[in-house]
Amino acid sequence: MPNAQCQNSALYKLNRPANQLTTEQQALQEQVIQFCLANAHAEHATFLIQGAAGTGKSVILSSVFKALQTLARQTPTSPLYGSQNVLLVNHPEMLKLYKSGTTTAPVLLKKDFQRPTTFINQAAKNHQLADIVLVDEAHLLLTKSDPYNHFNQTNQLDEIRRHSRITILIFDEQQVLKVKSFWQQQQLRQRIEAAPHQTAQLTHQFRMQAHPSVENWVQTFHQQQVAALPHDPHFEFKVFTDANELYQTIRFKNQTSGLARMLATYDFPATLNDGHDHFVETSTFKLRWDRYQPTAKTYWAEREDSIDEVGSVYTIQGFDLNYAGVIIGPSVTYDPQSERLVIHPEYYEDQAAFAGAAQLADPEAAKQQIILNSLYVLMSRARNGLYLYAVDPALQAKLLSL
């Protein structure tokens, strides 16, 4: 792997040295450490870190955890020496990435990183109380029971806080992808404001190497509005009339720049773990969905064979690409009269994402928000270029007109 690509790899960025953090990141890390020191004996305290996709939330959390484990395991003079700390993430690819980083950091052990359900069930069984629990992708925490995934309580955040003195959360409500993880700011704040707490907001965009107008366009699209395409000589933003042409461009970019992959909304049939390939297909294009490989040592986009696959929102969430080719499926259409996107949950193939929606005040709005969030995740992956193709003729025509 060329050196530039090595520095863009997920593992490198997640485990970059503290002296390579920005001034803002270093200040936030120190703020979190001081919060932990001040609340080491509190009954419970919560530190909430928020920020849009690409603002370096996981980088901060990884660096904070390494600093905490250094104090806990190598600094006898610290009040945090001997503290029992753990980092949780409800995302198997991210968990794999965190565990890979233990090979270069002696203060970290693979057992330090767990899925939330594993931690909750073990802590409940053994009546354990952790000192500090860090949660990456906290927007993926379950807000209702899920017996299929061995979570029988009602809310994962409540259970994590029940079994920890201090909780440090990374949260972005725009990245909630399932109704069973449906969070809103009001629900979150009600939980943390009853005890000592601090919040921080990350704003600097590290992923998109582009003018802020590019990120603003993606945010506007997430709000169901289609604005004029931004022009940035340093970021390639292009609409394709043919999905296969888009794919060939992605293949070329992968050869010349690395980390270029196809992505699609979950509007094409797929069944997890059934032993068969499933395909994303248009009139000119057919490529298999990403194959589930739980034993793979590298995450999806950094595997060589994934150039011959289409990544889903679950595969790519939390990770970067240099170039992203996004196929917008039939669940996202455009109404020329209202000049807004129209969302069709009935066309979304991941109907399991809507399980439990009937219990919400506005089930249809929740389903539409899940689809918009998934689209936002897909469209916010690219560092250097975003390519789009829409299945809906009206949306495709609108994008081309821009």
From TrEMBL:
InterPro entries: P-loop_NTPase, SLFN_3-like_DNA/RNA_helicase
Location of the Schlafen group 3-like DNA/RNA helicase domain: 45-392
Classification via Gene3D superfamilies: P-loop containing nucleotide triphosphate hydrolases (3.40.50.300)
Protein name: Schlafen group 3-like DNA/RNA helicase domain-containing protein
Naturally occurring in which organism (per UniProt): Latilactobacillus curvatus (Lactobacillus curvatus)
